[in-house]
Amino acid sequence: MAIQSGRIRVLNEAEPGPGAYVLYLMQQSMRSRDNPALEFAVEEANRLGLPVVVGFGLLDGGAHFPEANARHYAFLLQGLAQAKVGLARRGIAFVLRRATPAAAAIDLGRDAALVVLDRGYLAIQKRWYGEIGAGLDRRVVQVEGDVVVPVETASTKHEFAARTLRPKLHRLWDAYLEPLRPRRVAHPADGLALTSDLDVADPEAALAAMTLDRAVPPVRRFRGGEEEAWGRLDAYLAGPFAQYGTVRNRPEAGAASHMSPYLHFGQISPVAIALTVRSARTGGAEDKAAYLEELIVRRELAMNHVHYQPDYAAYEAAVPDWARKALAAHAGDPRDPLYDEAALEEGRTHDRHWNAAMREMRETGYMHNHLRMYWGKKILEWSPSPQEAFRRTLRLNNRYFLDGRDPNSFTNVAWLFGLHDRPWGRRPIFGTVRYLGANTLKKFDAAAYLRSVEALSAAEEA
């Protein structure tokens, strides 16, 4: 149950200095259990005879994530409230600063003997890590807890597709799929005089105290937090998981685990999910293999993409050359119908199934992956240019989905335009980029899906 050495890297060569505590900046892995960075901080604090302080930097909406709104912040704050409780049970202090993660780490790090970071692969996260490493004169250590196999260990390059990354992950993942025992905290942080700028114990009150976009409200369908994540996973494995291998692509079947928002906010560990799925008494080999494919191969392909392609939010960089050429060759093709972004956002198209999917996304923060593909392909078909379609899809994705602004989001949007795919038969507008049409809706019970969206919308309004 040791933390694998491949998860650990030192960001500067300074030695641990004198300090009142070991600081762990909880930025990506927002949980008190199954967290390698947290357990590493506890080990180091015990070795140095010090308590552990968990710091968190939080800015009001729009400062760094323009699409982030009350929906995202509510889920995040609910998660932090549960993490704080879990940390307190272990004798670990939690301190929130109204600042960037980098500024919070540097401020709290001045009184720390050692600073521990977790890992994220988005450009803004990397910038924060760089600022922290340069801004502190004591050792800064980063510990991976957001993927099963560390991205650079799995591959040293931008992978072409799932089929090229899959064998590399399969060779490595058993060594990383190990349970993580919580370490005993030898020196509780009870005596430290540290105060937070915002009290997350009451998430609703904390949300009300923030300045942010409230046009997209919190949802009732999902509530944030590690206990919520585990409750959902346990209920899922006790029931719907048993049919995952055969009906996972049917939106009306209820076979999805809904772990994506919890993974996005780091409220549950992908390693812990994988181990729990492997040992589940329900579900057969096909169900388990299919689930691990999505959880590890597909998710970590997305991490690979944003890590090795830092301009992942730009059409010209994220979409492969062959696909951009194919779409450019058909940029002048007639587009009928042609919708503006407001009509798309409000679900005012001629396609009632697309409108229902947009309604589910807009009102509940979720859309089944099978429909996400159809939804995005239609935006490409109904927009004036592929470049504008890319921008629209990304804006809507990041604004309404609870798991927006995630490596999966950026990668899935680029997939709609040809990333990690191959050329298909040529057709108008799409060229040789994959097309999805009405036949997609024949692969599941579309009428049942429409009824389910009505029920979900009613529940949100209740």
From TrEMBL:
Domain Photolyase/cryptochrome alpha/beta: 20-151
Domain of life: Bacteria
InterPro entries in UniProt: Crypto/Photolyase_FAD-like_sf, Crypto/Photolyase_N_sf, DNA_photolyase_N, Photolyase_Class-2, Rossmann-like_a/b/a_fold
Names of required cofactors: (6R)-5,10-methylene-5,6,7,8-tetrahydrofolate
Pfam family, one: DNA_photolyase
Protein name (database record): Photolyase/cryptochrome alpha/beta domain-containing protein
